[in-house]
Amino acid sequence: MSNYKFDQTDKRILEILQENAKITNAQLSKEIGLSPAPTLERVKKLETNGVIKSYHAQLDQQEIGLGVSTFITVTLVGHKKDYITTFVERINQIPEVVECHHITGQGDFILKVVSADIASYQKLILEVISEIPEIDDMQSTVILSTFKNSKVMPLPISSIKPN
């Protein structure tokens, strides 16, 4: 964990920016009760310290034609560093794999995959993912409904310095 300690103003800035990254500096400064110059300075400091990693648009998967989401638990043929490195390099070349997590428990990795439909998902599995030689086994779970998909990170109390 980073050694960066937030104060209440930093916390509020992060909460606001997570909800609306397009907010203007003037509006942000008004909401946190600082003038624009120190507000911008605080945001830049959060960016420089790596607390804010990026700004991007969150797209509606259905609206852009990605109607099927799945999780795939992947078990590799072995646990040598070369297997893991090569697997991750190959997975990073597949745009439909939107998340890849190294995990404990059953399997070695869990992938989140998005596809237009079941047919395109099946083609991706059969022609691309299953062809990765480092994979020993895969288990797919189709996501039927999503009830929470928050991109807002909760800020732990321990990271906030007292005023």
Commentary on this structure:
This protein is of the alpha+beta class and 163 residues long. The protein has 2 domains: 8-57, Winged helix-like DNA-binding domain superfamily/Winged helix DNA-binding domain (Arc Repressor Mutant, subunit A); 68-142, Lrp/AsnC effector binding domain/regulation of amino acid metabolism (RAM) domain (Alpha-Beta Plaits). 33% of the residues lie in helices and 18% in strands. The chain is built from 5 helices and 4 strands. A 4-stranded antiparallel sheet has the order 2-3-1-4. A hairpin with a 6-residue loop joins strand 2 (97-102) and strand 3. Helix 2 (25-32) packs across helix 3.
Short description:
With 163 residues, the protein is α+β, with helices and mostly antiparallel strands. The chain is 33% helix and 18% strand.
Question: Describe the biggest sheet?
Answer: 4 strands, antiparallel
Report the C-alpha radius of gyration, rounded: 20 Å
Percent helix: 25-40%
CATH architecture call of the largest domain: 2-Layer Sandwich
The CATH class assignment of the largest domain is: Alpha Beta
CATH domain fold name of the largest domain? Alpha-Beta Plaits
Mean pLDDT comes to 92
Molecular shape: elongated
SSE arrangement:
Layout: H1 8-19, H2 25-32, H3 36-48, E1 68-76, H4 81-91, E2 97-102, E3 109-115, H5 118-127, E4 135-142
Antiparallel strand pairs: 1-3, 1-4, 2-3
Helix pairs in contact: 2-3
Features:
alpha+beta; Arc Repressor Mutant, subunit A; Alpha-Beta Plaits; 2 domains; 4-stranded antiparallel sheet; 33% helix
